[in-house]
Write a structure and sequence with these properties.
single chain; 385 residues; alpha/beta; Aspartate Aminotransferase, domain 1; seven-stranded mixed beta sheet; three-stranded antiparallel beta sheet; binds 4'-deoxy-4'-aminopyridoxal-5'-phosphate; binds glutamine
Length: 385
């Protein structure tokens, strides 16, 4: 047996287990309602399940082509053109990934070199900064401005240096539910114009926007799209987070480099699911109604917590709602979240865990991709605190 010294030198010495795993585990231990990790508690379409079974029976059980099943890449190209008026070549500019997480990691790995700087907006989805660090890059954080969590573009300008390699954006935004507006995208486009900066745009919630707002994909902005990799997730769109299937679109010169890392991470994504998704995507009705569907849930949850001491700004998109507990406690977010799960059997995510260094806004994130019955039970708990 090999003997290691007391402390083994590793690449992420200060990183703990993901907050989603921690809170979900706590929810299990305490038999609590789990509004922490973002996943729906309702079923995947039986039509889609049947399609997966059909393709398994048909024998689509061996490796898919490295960039993805051609029919699915075609369907993604049609969808992207239809929604954003942007044309991507399925042969060279679209790759199916093992979830958006792998797409994000492959994109960062392909482009971020030792000591390159990557601008990340905080609060930030938990995988971005570790992925930058694992590739030897340096995350330069820029805080979104509460209460609407908007971007201060003047500050971003100040943070750009000749080492800036990448800017990561995410709209609709996890965990705040805020949206980038047309003006934000135009500001970003001006900022990166004539630079070597690559934009990584995490758009996994592209179909989940409320109050009739339109998703501002970077694909809509040719000046941005030519230097952007856009990451999407079928897990979010089709209520199948456990399938871990997503995709990345990018111009050919970026996609060529992306595929070099993708091929050695997973080689390809799950084959029968890709065949099934290719067929399912033929009907845009399968994703078009998602905004109103989740808006009903957001509104139901917000109305149900109206009588509580928790306050909020309604989420503009995603299936997450932040609630402010300042009127209840001045505890740190993690302490309050632990108390809530232990004493009241309700699990939520402290927004502090989306910051690289300590932070306390007295905000917890609640996932409302749940049945009304579950949301009602959760709201009753909050109303009694
Ligand atoms: N980005 C954001 C903002 C997310 O919320 C998630 C969570 N699903 C992901 C990426 C990862 O997506 P996937 O499950 O497809 O890997
Ligand atoms: N995206 C999901 C969330 O924000 C969780 C993904 C995960 O568990 N890693 O809750």
């Amino acid at each position: 047996m090999m003997h290691f010294p007391d402390s083994i030198s590793t690449k992420l010495p200060n990183t703990g287990i993901s907050i989603f795993a921690v809170m979900t585990q706590l929810a299990r231990e305490h038999e609590a309602i789990n509004l922490s990790q973002g996943f729906p508690d309702f079923a995947v379409s039986p039509v889609l399940i049947e399609l997966v079974a059909k393709h398994m029976r048909k024998g689509h059980n061996q490796y898919a082509p490295m960039p993805g099943v051609p029919a699915l890449r075609e369907a993604i190209a049609v969808k992207t053109e239809r929604l954003y008026g942007a044309s991507y070549d399925p042969q060279q500019e679209i790759t199916v990934t093992a979830g958006a997480t792998q797409g994000i990691y492959a994109a960062i790995t392909a482009f971020v070199k030792e000591e390159d700087e990557v601008i990340v907006f905080e609060p930030a989805y938990d995988s971005y900064i570790p992925a930058v660090k694992l590739n030897g890059g340096v995350a330069i954080t820029c805080k979104l401005k509460a209460p609407d969590f908007s971007v201060d573009w003047e500050e971003v300008k100040r943070l750009v240096s000749n080492r800036t390699r990448m800017i990561i954006i995410n709209s609709p935004h996890n965990p705040t539910g805020s949206l980038l507006k047309k003006e934000d995208l135009l500001q970003l486009e001006r900022l990166v114009n004539n630079s070597g900066i690559i934009v990584l745009s995490d758009e996994v919630y592209e179909h989940i926007l409320f109050d009739e707002q339109q998703h501002e994909s970077v694909c809509r902005y040719p000046g941005l799209a030519q230097r952007s990799l856009v990451c999407c997730s079928f897990g979010k769109t089709f209520h199948a987070t456990g399938w871990k299937t997503g995709y990345v679109v990018a111009p050919a010169n970026l996609m060529t480099e992306f595929r070099k890392t993708h091929q050695f991470m997973v080689f390809c994504a799950n084959a029968p699911i890709q065949h099934a998704l290719a067929e399912f995507l033929q009907d845009p009705g399968h994703y078009e109604g998602l905004g109103p569907f989740f808006q009903t849930k957001r509104d139901y949850f917000l109305q149900a917590v109206e009588a509580s001491r928790f306050t909020y700004t309604p989420a503009g998109g995603t299936y997450f709602q932040l609630l402010d507990y300042s009127a209840v406690s001045d505890e740190e977010e993690m302490d309050f979240a632990r108390w809530l799960v232990k004493e009241h059997k309700l699990a939520a995510v402290p927004t502090a865990s989306f910051y690289n260094k300590g932070h306390n806004d007295h905000l917890l994130r609640f996932c409302f991709a749940k049945s009304e019955e579950t949301l009602k039970k959760a709201a009753d708990i909050l109303c009694n605190i």
